[in-house]
Amino acid sequence: MKILIIGGGNMGKTYARSLLRAHLTTESDLMLLERDPEKAKALSQSGVGTVYLDAAHCLDAADLIILAVKPQDSGDLFARLRPLVHHQQVYLSIMAGVKIATIQAALGATKIIRAMPNLPAQIGMGMTAYTASPEVTRIELVLVQNLLNTTGKAIYVAEESAIDATTAISGSGPAYVFYFMDAMIDAARKMGFDRPQAELLVSQTFLGAVELYAKNDLSCAEWIERVSSKGGTTEAAIKTFRNTSVYEDIVSGAEAALRRAEELGGG
What we know:
Rossmann fold, 11 helices
């Protein structure tokens, strides 16, 4: 399968490197399209495939095209691609908020897969949800899932509306984690630790807690109970969180992200 990645930004480069590392393609079968001459030159020197400046020189040869450009740049991109599209090609879009129907209408293509990855995909720890138009075959879906799994884990969702929900949870979710971590680092600093010490205390605590959760069948509530003791320090902290509605605020924040995702997608 010949793969073309359109967009040489962080996610475009992430997919290129991940595909090569997983041996799902080769440098000779991997193409990248980047309009910026300086970025294209840098990509050419990075050894992640053949780099092109013009879609007319590469689109026709591609079986799978990954759309990894900013949503606001999609209109101009679609206008340039449409005369070159042929109907057997599969298009995988990671553009936030751009719906399958919009891509089909703009490109004149039918086989569209829409995915929402998140930032940890850059280190192979990403979470991606994806869905597809009915024209995409089962074999093509499996191939794309294998591709997405090179950057972490991927799940198929039947309804496109679930992509907006994914955006609100796993897409924006790393920022929620960083926000909580930042507050804990600040608390540690106020307790007398210097910044490197505070950052190590907090980052290792998060890493350990996530690993415990991932490798066991206990719920979050059950883990909280295990860490807590009657009249102890953890109980004091959790009581404060409950009294100040931290839990409800996190839920409200995720719901606000979902509403915004729906607005950006015209939903």
